[in-house]
Specification:
The protein has about 120 residues and is mainly alpha-helical. Helix content is about 70%, strand content about 0%. The chain is built from 4 helices and no strands.
């Protein structure tokens, strides 16, 4: 429970930083903040839920009684949750790293001048 709360707080913190960084670097702050929220919530809550459903279906199909499924999953659910929170943090960090890169000018107007050429008398 505490791990999930920390993961949710991380989503909020990353979203704020990504929004500010995107705005400072001339990117669409709302789009990148929404991408961060999608990665965070999807990886921390939706993916583990789907994995546990698949494991539950497999356990019931292999003969585990439905009332014993929770005990059979036990620590696996915690491990899956921790793994998905870690993957979520990595994904949000990668988005932040991408947004922090400065956009390059498309027209190339800030290119440095060519080096000088010196004519030598031969």
């Amino acid at each position: 429970m505490i791990l999930q709360l920390l993961g949710f707080i991380a989503i909020i913190v990353f979203t704020v930083f990504i929004g500010k960084t995107a705005k400072e670097n001339g990117r669409n702050a709302v789009l990148w903040a929404a991408a961060c929220i999608g990665i965070g919530l999807g990886t921390q809550f939706v993916v583990p839920f789907l994995i546990v459903i698949v494991i539950t279906i497999v356990l019931v199909a292999t003969g585990t009684r439905p009332d014993q499924v929770e005990a059979a999953i036990g620590w696996w659910a915690f491990g899956i949750s921790a793994l998905c929170i870690t993957l979520s943090l990595i994904g949000m960090f990668l988005v932040l790293r991408h947004v922090a890169q400065l956009l390059e000018d498309q027209d190339g107007g800030d290119a440095p001048p060519p080096p000088p050429t010196f004519k030598q008398n031969d």
